[in-house]
Design goal:
With 165 residues, the protein is an all-alpha fold. It is built from seven helices and no strands. The longest helix is centred in the last third of the chain and has 26 residues. The radius of gyration is 19 Å and the shape is elongated.
């Protein structure tokens, strides 16, 4: 691998790792984030979601639901804490391919399978949970866009000769 191709590989992989970390970190303060988004969308009272339409309705509905859930059952937030933790741990697995791209190409392949698996998960579980189709498409986009740097990295690694013992 040339120094230039290694640099491009590591930039693509760094983008993927940073995206996983940021995605994980945003799962911790959900209620604070929804409060901010609600205010930005001009939603003064999330409990009045029934009078809103489109994105405002969905954000207010989720914000209100999270407020009510956290007030009555704060332990439910622990689930999203684990979601955040999972993202951070998964990001750590990509340190191996960062250090040894050819020897750890399997991690990139597993990551690609995980990205592809987002689509059926979002479509099936999202439908069961009543998530609007448009929002499920946004969730699917994480898998699609997440796969792009991994595909690039696998192509770079694929150009290398791998010895088989």
């Amino acid at each position: 691998m040339t120094p230039q191709s290694l640099l491009r590989y590591r930039i693509a992989l760094a983008f993927f790792i940073v995206s996983l970390v940021l995605s994980g970190l945003t799962a911790f303060p959900l209620l604070t984030e929804l409060s901010f988004v609600s205010k930005a969308l001009g939603i003064n009272d999330p409990s009045a979601y029934a009078s809103l339409t489109g994105l405002q309705h969905w954000i207010a509905f989720v914000h209100h639901g999270l407020q009510q859930t956290y007030a009555a059952y704060p332990f439910v937030g622990y689930g999203t804490d684990w979601l955040a933790f999972g993202h951070l741990v998964i990001a750590m697995f990509f340190v191996g391919p960062w250090r040894d791209p050819v020897g750890n190409a399997w991690v990139l392949r597993v990551g690609l399978v995980a990205c592809a698996s987002i689509i059926p998960l979002a479509m099936i579980c999202g439908a069961i949970r009543g998530i609007p189709f448009s929002w499920r498409l946004i969730d699917c986009s994480f898998g699609v866009f997440g796969s792009l740097p991994l595909i690039y990295c696998l192509r770079v690694v694929g150009d290398q000769k791998v010895g088989v013992e």
